[in-house]
Amino acid sequence: MTSETFILLSGSLTFGVPIVLAIRELRGLRRGGGGHSEPAAPRPAPRPRGGSGRPLPDCLIPKPRPARPPRVRELA
Question: N or C: which end of the chain has fewer CB within 10 A?
């Protein structure tokens, strides 16, 4: 293998392959994304159908978290 062939192959593997892969990824992003920068809003959870009509027990009802008391900084 001549030195010119080695330089050509080495350069194409070093620079050409990553550039081709990057261009392929960018083209795939453009097609699949649809041009929207923000993701779509998630769907709400489906409402249960039927059911027994009984209320939830107290342990399963979500309760608001209590507010933390303000931190008092000590003077040292």
Answer: C
